[in-house]
Amino acid sequence: MGFYHRHILPTLLDKIMTGNAGLDLLRKEALATARGRVLEIGFGTGLNAAHYPHGAERVVGLDSNPGVERLARKRIDAASVPIEFHLGSGDRAPFADHSFETVVTTLALCSISDVDGALAEVRRLLAPGGRYLLLEHGLADDVHVQAWQRRLQPLYGAVLGGCRLDRPMPELVTRAGFRFEHRKHFYLADAPRFAGFMTLGSATPI
Question: Which of 25, 48, 159, 184 has the most CB atoms at less than 10 Å from its CB?
Fold first, then answer.
């Protein structure tokens, strides 16, 4: 991992996503049903830490970039639920089968290179009766927006750590063996449409 990805990218992404009240409300909504032992894949700089409900007994934050921990630490320390940070890849998570009652991804599946492997890990790690909670951006439902997503992908991905604009998130989740309990799609307010088509929902393994 190079200097840019380890030292500059975490700060850049943190600046982009900090202070968006609408996105904070969406994080809170996405995490509202988190229960028991929780794994968050793609923990990043800890922007979800303040939004975990008391039903989350302990949160394990997993991220592959060691540069995020220095920014995440203050949010971990201020959280109302216990959070521990682990360095590791979402597509090869270092935890035993069925270890978590809840697995979370928010704005993370776009940048994991092996997204199918990561979703297979979500399925493996969920305990019986567990729930996968997600808030992700991806391929839009408008063909004109899709065209711009594909045009901008090379530059966007290079600047933002491999982030993909064109992943069909609901299709990826169902293909991985999940059934949505609920989901909704919308464009994020105050975000460009090419980067702001969102999927928010919860799913369970079939």
Answer: 48
